[in-house]
Write a structure and sequence with these properties.
With 451 residues, this protein is an alpha/beta fold. The chain has 16 helices and 13 strands. It has a single domain, classed as Glycosidases (TIM Barrel, Alpha-Beta Barrel), CATH 3.20.20.80. It is globular, with a radius of gyration of 21 Å. It binds D-gluconic acid (GCO).
């Protein structure tokens, strides 16, 4: 058994989480730079100021990726590194970094998959209202154009935005992520609408200007409810729960993906949010709904639900003492079966798992190596579930492990280690974990290794 021909095996990271060089070579401030200065927000006062120092060590990092045999690397670009003010003057040195990075990846036979926005929003634009300002859609389109004009002669795969559920929900409603706001729900929906508009305009710019034919997607959170049994009523309940609007929060697939793919907000949300809906101007839904080439999705875990006799559903409480990662997130491999399956059924776009992985209690063992058998077992289980989804008809094009290397895990700082590569931060030394060697064999066998 193996995976489809042309299936892409990769790993991912994001600019603020690995680059460091937060105040170098003309980079502007991002909302995450500011968040890290706010006492009490980040574990132990950690910051992304240095992170993995990838800005200076990208050459070594690309060589390590090649050693693992990665076919693709999903990276993100720091908007304020390229446009310190968010719009207007270009920071040529910042742009040149990404130019070199792309060349270095290609030299190592690694396809770059570029995410335009993975949360490090320009602080200068935040001061002009950020996502609450309707102009943010045009600001994002302008930034997209700068990147496309520079890199699209070599980059084929583009992801507009990573997880709007988090940078809008956790960033503007819960206050846990940058910019740390706790807004009313009407403002949250307004910010969400503008970020959807930004997605649509960005796709238009990529299609119009890319020098080689682009493949475009987004990478939302994948909420993948798991049925408690294989009975049709439980499967239907899980499907319904996967797409239902469950409350006045952003934990929804449909609120973000339906506009992008169907050009309309889901009916249940329109009803529930009737009093808080943003201004939706004529033509907005058309702008948001641009043809996409794949459905990128980040899946880590999810809840199990079962049908109720009255037609509704309920969450099935997990066992006592469930398997947990150090986040602590529950280990639920079936999420990588049902998530791709339900999302593919509804949106009919090829699936790419743009993030999946786990935080583990990794350290350097007495033999100088980093042994992470939990991660190998975790990934094996999830990949088997993903493979089963494909065997059952889901069209899927790739899989990216989060993360290629340990990095700054947002509010958790450096407490959580998700990498295939261990980073000894004080020494800035990298060590391939056992899982990296294992993944090398998975890639070389096109997945046969997991069975
Ligand atoms: C997210 C982001 C990543 C995280 C990863 C682990 O999903 O939150 O895309 O930046 O680091 O998911 O939490």
């Amino acid at each position: 058994m193996s995976f489809p021909n042309n299936f892409v095996w990769g790993a991912a990271a994001a600019s603020y989480q690995i680059e460091g060089a937060a105040y170098e070579e003309g980079k502007g401030l991002s909302v995450w730079d500011m968040m890290c200065k706010t006492p009490g927000k980040i574990w132990e006062g950690n910051t992304g100021d240095v992170a993995c120092d990838h800005y200076h060590r990208y050459d070594e990092d690309a060589r390590l990726m090649q050693e693992i045999g990665l076919q693709a690397y999903r990276l993100s670009i720091s908007w304020p590194r390229v446009l310190p003010g968010g719009t207007g003057a270009i920071n040529e040195k910042g742009l040149a970094f990404y130019d070199r990075l792309i060349d270095t990846l290609l030299k190592n036979n690694i396809q770059p998959w570029v995410t335009l926005f993975h949360w490090d929003y320009p602080y200068a634009l935040y001061c002009r209202g950020g996502w609450l300002n309707r102009d943010s859609a045009d600001w994002f389109a302008e930034y997209t154009q700068v990147i496309i004009d520079k890199l699209s002669d070599r980059v084929l795969h583009w992801i507009t935005q990573n997880e709007p559920q988090c940078y809008i929900g956790l960033g503007h409603q819960a206050g846990e992520h940058a910019p740390g706001l706790k807004l009313g729900f009407a403002e949250v929906l307004r910010a969400a609408h503008h970020s959807l508009l930004a997605h649509g305009k960005s796709v238009q710019v990529i299609r119009a200007r890319a020098k080689i034919k682009p493949a475009i997607g987004a990478a939302p959170v994948g909420i993948a409810k798991i049925p408690a049994s294989n009975q049709p009523e439980d499967i239907n309940a899980a499907r319904a729960a996967t797409f239902a609007i469950s409350g006045k929060n952003c934990w929804s697939n449909a609120w973000f993906a339906d506009p992008m793919i169907f050009g309309k907000y889901p009916e249940d949300g329109l009803k529930l949010f009737a009093a808080e809906l943003p201004e939706i101007r004529d033509g907005d839904m058309k702008t948001i709904c641009q043809p996409l080439d794949f459905y990128g999705v980040n899946i880590y875990f999810d809840e199990t639900v079962r049908a109720r006799s009255n037609g509704g559903y309920e969450v099935v409480k997990s066992q006592i003492g469930p398997p947990l990662t150090t986040m602590p997130w529950e280990v639920t491999p079936e999420a990588l079966y049902w998530g791709p399956k339900f999302l593919f059924e509804r949106y009919q776009l090829p699936i790419v798992v743009t993030e999946n992985g786990m935080a583990n209690c990794d350290w350097i063992h007495l033999d100088g190596k980093v042994h992470d058998p939990q991660r190998i077992d975790f990934l094996t289980r999830y990949l088997r579930a993903y493979h089963r989804a494909m065997a059952d008809g889901v069209v899927a094009q790739g899989y990216f492990i989060w993360s290629v290397m340990d990095n700054f895990e947002w509010g958790h700082g450096y407490k959580q280690r998700f990498g295939l590569i261990y980073v000894d931060y004080p020494a800035q030394k990298r060590i391939l974990k056992d899982s990296a060697y294992w993944y090398k064999e998975v890639i070389a066998s096109n997945g046969a290794k997991i069975f």
